[in-house]
Design goal:
Structural class: alpha+beta
Helix content: 10-25%
Radius of gyration: 26 Å
Strand content: 25-35%
Shape: globular
Largest sheet: 10 strands, antiparallel
């Protein structure tokens, strides 16, 4: 039977984000205001009650502020004894009078502090926790935890085995929908639990040597389509996310989207060896008595009660396992291997578009395949590079913790782009008689299967209509476990005129970055490794040092085409098996600062054209 695992995490955040501005309207800021502290603790009690009355255990992540509140401490001890809740420690909720007096800052994101301050704060918070409870926590967390922070915590407090370590796709899209004021960027990480590497939190460990020593879980379980296309804070299994997104019946106060989202996660067990995961991570600021997100307190409360009731119903039916964070870390270590990927075949459950995407994540890459664009790869992160990316004050990345992309259709255009230039995408063009059709224009569907360590995405055939010829073409994309390559097979199933000269152009348009804005491409190098074709002399290998000059190189029978990207220590390459194959590379220009790798060849009826996209670390 499939296993659907749930973590519910509450934190008695005595000074909830945003709440001081609400409870203290018209008054000078005072984060020690008694009304604020009392309301916060009352809401925490309500949240705990919602879980417990539905038979669900929680992880109580004590905040720094709550460690100075005797009632919050006693509640945590009581709920641990009575309900089996875990007492953990959050690195959120730092702001309080004691913290501000000691550190003289309004910063509250632990990963943004200098490394010196991170260490001091961690030691301070952990020692205060030990002073109160007489033991150190097994679990911790924040919106994001950088690799240096995780490595330090594990070295100083080896009992820590689980942490909330990133928000999924919390980057420029979230920044823009927060009126350009939410200066935290953490795109490019896993959406489901993983073991982070010592080098980079986002990139899963490939082996024991890379293992940071903890199991990481995401901050909320997001809608893997709506969140990617838009602001993730509106589309998650946190009930108040659904209210912020206005995705509920305003007349009846019912939440069918929330239940569909939970069920969509349950469905992913089919692609992950019978296991699926969900989490809610909730602070009291979301249930303010004065209301939030154009919703009254009564609606806020009902959404949370209904959400917990749905999880409780699933548990009673034997369809859900509720665990604390520490319990989950032990479960995950027994359930998963380092190279075992996380897969998600996701459909639109919000807009009725019938759109379908596939997500794949392992220690070497994160990729997204869009069936609405004929199986194009629309997001690609080179985890194989295990890119060291220090974050915080004193580093090159004070706010930007994102893992860089090679392809990202939302920030670098994708297929549907301006009249000039190109966007990042991996796709193919089918050509015949001077006509050309990009598979990005061919909407299809897919199903997932597994053969040994291979996860196989088989797309439904698409029909391509030229003036004189009809072609039925099928795509199969294979992700081999333990490999850093994606295998893409194109096959013509039938053709109305078998004598027609049908050609295929398999291509990748790429760049690198973490935002919409172009990086300096001048250090990149493009190359064509020479090969040979029957009846032709072997051509020499060729290189282009990127200089924005629109140059191209190609070779018949090329063994590989590639690009080296020194700023992110990555080498991306294509190799190919196909009739009359010809490999090529293209340099971009200032208005379209991309690079292109590709292969062309001939494709007849019942023939295959196979390409491998590979990622490696390049020092």
């Amino acid at each position: 039977m499939d296993q659907f695992v749930l973590n519910i995490i509450h934190r008695p955040e005595m000074v909830p984000e945003y709440a001081e501005k609400v409870t203290g309207q018209g008054k000078t800021e005072d984060i020690g205001r008694k009304a604020l502290l009392t309301e916060s603790l009352d809401i925490f009690k309500v949240q705990q009650e919602c879980a417990h009355k539905n038979g669900l255990k929680t992880t109580i992540q004590m905040t720094y502020a709550s460690l100075f509140n005797q009632e919050a401490v006693e509640l945590a001890k009581e709920h641990h004894a009575v309900y089996g809740d875990e007492i953990a420690l959050s690195l959120l909720g730092l702001p309080c009078e004691q913290f501000r007096k000691k550190y003289k800052t309004k910063d509250f994101c632990i990963w943004m502090f200098s490394m010196e301050d991170k260490k001091a704060i961690v030691r301070d918070v952990f020692s205060k926790f030990y002073e109160i409870f007489g033991f150190y926590p097994e679990s911790t967390g924040s919106y994001y935890m950088d690799a240096d922070l995780i490595n330090f915590i594990k070295a100083e407090y080896p009992m820590v085995k689980c942490a909330v370590a990133t928000c999924w796709e919390e980057g420029p899209k979230a920044y823009h929908t927060c009126n350009n004021s939410w200066y935290t960027f953490m795109d490019g990480g896993p959406w489901a639990p993983w073991i982070p590497s010592k080098q980079n939190t986002h990139a899963p460990a490939a082996n024991e040597e890379e293992d940071s020593g903890i199991v990481a879980i995401p901050h909320l379980s997001r809608d893997l389509m709506a969140c990617y296309d838009g602001n993730g804070s509106n589309f998650g299994t946190h009930p108040q996310n659904v209210l912020r997104g206005m995705i509920y019946d305003t007349q009846t106060w019912e939440f069918p989207y929330l239940y569909n989202l939970i069920d969509q996660y349950r469905y992913q067990a089919k692609f992950n060896d019978g296991y699926a995961y969900n989490m809610m991570f909730v602070g009291p600021g979301w249930m303010n008595k004065m209301g939030r997100w154009e919703a009254s307190y009564e609606l806020l409360l009902k959404s949370y009660e209904d959400g917990c009731a749905y999880y409780g119903k699933l548990k009673k039916e034997g369809k859900l396992l509720d665990m604390t964070m520490g319990e989950f870390a032990d479960f995950y270590r027994k359930k998963k291997t380092y190279t075992q990927p996380e897969c998600a075949l996701w459909k639109d459950i919000l807009y009725g578009s019938k759109k379908q995407i596939f997500w794949y994540c392992d220690p070497f890459m994160r990729a997204c395949v869009n069936m609405d664009q004929g199986g194009a790869i629309v997001d690609l992160r080179p985890y194989a590079a295990k890119l060291e990316w220090p974050v915080g004050i004193g580093t090159k990345h004070v706010q930007d913790a994102s893992y860089p992309f090679l392809i990202q259709e939302k920030y670098r255009a994708g297929y549907f782009t301006h009249y000039a230039g190109e966007g990042t995408i991996y796709s193919a063009k089918v050509c015949c008689g001077g006509e050309e059709v990009d598979l990005c224009l061919c909407r299809t569907k897919a199903h997932v299967s597994q053969e040994g360590g291979d996860r196989i995405l088989t797309l439904d055939p698409v029909e391509i209509v030229f003036s004189a010829v009809r072609v039925s073409l099928q795509t199969v994309i294979t992700f081999a476990e333990g490999s850093s390559a994606i295998k893409i097979e194109r096959k013509i199933l039938s053709i109305s005129d078998p004598s027609a000269d049908v050609r295929i152009n398999e291509y990748m348009v790429g760049c690198y970055g973490t935002t919409e804005y172009s990086e300096d491409m001048s250090s990149l190098v493009l190359g064509v490794d020479a090969g040979s074709m029957d009846g032709k002399e072997r051509e020499e290998s060729k290189e282009i040092a990127y200089a924005y000059r629109c140059r191209e190189e190609a070779a018949d029978g090329a063994e590989a085409v590639w690009c080296k990207l020194p700023p992110i220590h990555t080498r991306v390459s294509l190799r190919c098996e196909g009739r009359e194959k010809r490999g090529y590379v293209k340099e971009g220009y200032a208005f379209s600062p991309m690079f292109t790798l590709g292969y062309t060849g001939k494709l007849g009826e019942k023939e295959d054209f196979v390409t491998w996209l590979s990622l490696e670390r390049e020092d």
